[in-house]
Amino acid sequence: MKAASIFNEVKTADKLLAITFDDGPNPEWTPQFLRVFQQYGAKATFYVHGTNMEKYPDVAQRMDEEGHEFGNHSYSHPHMASLSKEEQTEELRRAEQIIVAVIGKRPSTFRPPYLEYNDDLLAVCEQFGYPVIHATNLDTRDWDMPGTEHIVNVTRAEVRAGSILLFHDGFGDRSQSLAAIQILVPELIEQGFKLVTISELLATETT
Ligand SMILES: [Zn+2]
Fold it and tell me: Which of 51, 78, 122, 163 is the most buried (most CB within 10 A)?
C-alpha cells in the first residue's frame, strides 16, 4: 500500500518559506491576516474546514482572488485516526468538493486535524495525490493563546530556507496569532525570505 509523504519542511536551495493557516475561513480574523499579506505582497496557504467554506464562501473567494492557496484540512475536523478508511475518504472528498465549488480549484495538499494520522490516512492521502503537510514551529501552540512573544520567539527559532510555519486564522480569539504575523511577515521579508504558497515551496524541493 503506497503512502503519502509527510513534510515538516522542504529541502530547497532557495530562500523561501511557506506560512500556513488552519481552521478558517473566519469572517472576523481571516481578512485581518489577508491585509498583512497584501501589504507586503506575500502569499500564504490556508488549510480550511469544509464546514467553514460552506458558511463563509465570500471570505474564501477573497483569499483566492488575492493569490493564496487552499489546502484540504478535512470537512468536519474530526480525529482522523479514529475513523474508518471509508470515513477518512469521505472527509477528504467532501472537503475537496466544497473547495472546488467555492473557488473552482482543487486543493493539492492535506493537513490532518490535530496533526493526527495513521497508515490508512496516509494511503487515502496518496489516493487523492495529497502530500501531508505538518510544520516546523508546532511548539508555538498559537491556538492556545500562549502570548504573542512566545509565538514570535518559537517561530523565529524555526526560520530557515524551506520552513513550513503554522498559525491559526480560525477557532476562537486569534489576536495573538495576528499580532505575531504582523511582526514576523515584515521581519522575514527584511531578512530576504520570499513568502510563497506550499505548492510553490514543494516545487523547489531538491533531493
Ligand atoms: Zn485544525
Answer: 163
